[in-house]
Amino acid sequence: MKITRLTTYRVPPRWMFLRVETDEGLIGWGEPVVEGHAHAVQAAVHELEPYLIGQDPARINDLWQLMYRAGFYRGGAVFMSAIAGVDQALWDIKGKALGVPVYQLLGGLVRERMRTYGWVGGDRPSDVINAIRQRVDAGFSHFKLNGCEEMGLIDSSRAVDTAVARVAEIRAAFGNAVEFGLDFHGRVSVPMAAVLIKELEPLRPLFIEEPVLAEQAEHYPKLAAKTHLPLAAGERMYSRFEFKRVLAAGGIAILQPDLSHAGGITECIKIAAMAEAHDVAIAPHCPLGPIALASCLHVDFVSWNATLQEHSMGIHYNQGGEVLDYVLNKEDFRLDKGFIAPNTRPGLGVEINEELVRERSRDCPDWRNPVWRHADGSVAEW
Ligand SMILES: O=C(O)[C@H](O)[C@@H](O)[C@@H](O)[C@H](O)CO
Ligand SMILES: [Mg+2]
Prior knowledge:
DgoD-like, TIM Barrel, binds magnesium ion, 2 domains, galactonate dehydratase activity, alpha/beta, three-stranded antiparallel beta sheet, nine-stranded mixed beta sheet, Enolase-like, domain 1, Galactonate_deHydtase, Enolase-like_C_sf, metal-binding, 13 helices, binds D-galactonic acid
């Protein structure tokens, strides 16, 4: 079998799908995208074509190394997301060719169901109580919300108290019947993270995500030494070569590689194994579409240390498109009180509505995240 064509489709709300064709008629789908940079990733995917066209799609490991090493420059969000989408599509083809789901190719199930969580509260986490109540009434118990709005390098006790008060409302309304991660979203500086985490401790969030920006990763161990709250990070790290340093330094209890940013299934399986060796959990990051989510779940179902899976159903970013819009087999993504069962279809298990993908890709608006500024006019981390 040989790879014959790569076609990319930028689709609302902010995703990109990759369709890989073969000379035997088998099609594989991937989701290479960095939110807000779809055009860059689209170019990076098509730059990989000389390494892929005419190649045997079964040789996933060799093609992964070729895509990673042959172009001399490597790593980073754009290149690794391009590789991720191709990798996902190659696993999809392999599973379809052999008639088995990808998790079977990776050694089979380690669990019967996987716990997931969704977002509440939006960019500026307001009205989370009603959002959580709706989800609790539907049987869900695990969520994530932004831990704060923009935060100055050195900010005030009022800013800290506002963030803490919102979380206190959740505990007051639901007690410990719910679990939630607080995403600092890279908005919090190293000094303010220590202050904010300390004030949040009594409210016992399940984890603190991106307590500081990935470029401040050397501070993770120091922050972890000051708190008992589990720290989580990974959505802005793009290969096992980045994760190895974080694991060696310690401080992170939950790694969150993104299956569409960190090199795909081939790479994230390796990251999961490295994490397990350090007694670190994985909770793959996934604010994206169905192919990314399916890829996460195949890694979850074969990784003993996978604990939580993010999904983007109902996420505040999904204006103009929802996770299952492009999926024909919606029933395979049903959440039962937040848990999801393994998808037993061959490959990744996503039956793509190709006609809708082509239609929605024709005039797909560019999504960009908002640009925030502090009161003094300086750029704020979003
Ligand atoms: O944890 C999460 O889902 C992420 O922080 C998410 O909010 C961002 O990655 C967003 O997708 C960037 O455009
Ligand atoms: Mg996050």
